[in-house]
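Researcher: We're teaching a course module on how sequence relates to structure. For the next exercise, students receive a sequence and then see the predicted structure as tokens, so they can try to spot secondary structure elements on their own. Here is the exercise chain.
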Amino acid sequence: MFEGFDLETVELSEASLRVRHGGSGPPVLLLHGHPRTHATWHRVAPLLARTHTVICPDLRGYGQSSKPLDTPDHSGMSKRALARDMAELMMHFGHARFAVVGHDRGSYVAFRLALDHPARVSHLAFLGQVPIGEALERANERFARLWWHWFFFAQPTKPERAILADPDAWYGNTPQKQAQMGEDAYADYRAAVHDAATVHAMLEDYRAGLGIDRQHDMTDRQAGHTVQCPTLVLWPTQDDPEPLYDDILAIWRPWAAVLRGQGIQSGHHMAEEVPDELAAIVLEFLDES
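Model: And here is the predicted structure for the students to work with:
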């Protein structure tokens, strides 16, 4: 995986992050989702690294990065806290301004990064959904049926017990998934979902989502804060976004000053399923914006 990339642990003020980085040129930060690690990008990152400096961390709480202390409001796994990590990480590598591409839970970190640190983010690519606050406002029967896990994961204790009783069964780990992800990326991901501390931190991510993250989104909306950089929204047509939201870009328009978007013929994990197409679209966006 990641031929030509370096792997290191970076100590930040609030977290210790495992980070893979390589390439040269304008910087791009790639943020993974649940329950993956940075290894989910192993097919996309080398394509971007031909013309860009690419940085792929394990988010705080995920993979081999450090886990925050628990707090009643779950703020240690809030997207604001994770975004602070990313702003500090990129400055560690000497990048005052950079593009960010986020998938799944990582997309929420990317969104928060663009709102909280607007001078730092040159481009935002949001892969998968709509902002957390917007999603929760649309949490109707259809949402609850398809995305019931948001509400189960927010419960205390029981999700940990359910997942850790048999992580392979819970996450549907099969030879087919291993083939899709690639052997090394699959091994990295599987080690993460078998680690109790990582599973707990990933669930804290969802607990933060239903509380403090939603509050932050709604506060920004009330204040009229928007993403000022060019924004690309991509969604997999073989997954849930289109059934959940009739017009994904209409939900995004109040949030982004310069917006484009499209569906991609893929399941949920676009970086693993259609890496060439995804990389080509992202590169076009970065070059033209």
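Model: If you want an answer key for the exercise: The longest helix spans residues 196-223. The chain has one domain: 6-288.
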